[in-house]
Amino acid sequence: xxxxxxxxxxxxxxxxxxxxxxxxxxxxxxxxxxxxxxxxxxxxxxxxxxxxxxxxxxxxxxxxxxxxxxxxxxxxxxxxxxxxxxxxxxxxxxxxxxxxxxxxxxxxxxxxxxxxxxxxxxxxxxxxxxxxxxxxxxxxxxxxxxxxxxxxxxxxxxxxxxxxxxxxxxxxxxxxxxxxxxxxxxxxxxxxxxxxxxxxxxxxxxxxxxxxxxxxxx
Length: 218
Fold this sequence. Notes:
Glutathione S-transferase Yfyf (Class Pi), Chain A, domain 2; 2 domains; globular; 5-stranded mixed beta sheet; 8 helices; about 45% helix; alpha/beta
């Protein structure tokens, strides 16, 4: 039996990982409050207070059902297992595998290589920018090749899945923070345009969840 207490999402408004979870909570109609953890300016994630919530000192973290969960994909799977409707994964085994392919390319092959935490390990901002843009473009090309011949209105089949929850925040990062163009990726560009019109991505968009709109800061 799922708990009745309001869930708490510790996230950062521009974090793509936080956006994935925020969108899933919205789709699952789970009542939650969001507490902003400023991982850029204030670096609130490095405090001892936040370390007790997430030992990895990253976002997001979700307090739900009396438990604290970290890592966005683990959180999405928990929500899927405990609140199965509406589904965020296809029933068909092949389509489910396709969904996981897309998720893995993004969460393992792109997002970690553009993380702001890497910046301090480069001698110059230019080196960091070149590195992040290279790996982002490479990942986007892989997604374009995979999705070109199999995608529909959404990444996989006729429903929003975890793949879409990963794709939209990644493309937002690519086009805004990294200032990349999607001209070379017509399939991704079309999908992105379609998905941004969905209510879930409108109400959970960073522009709607900027700091003055979140409940509180850590």
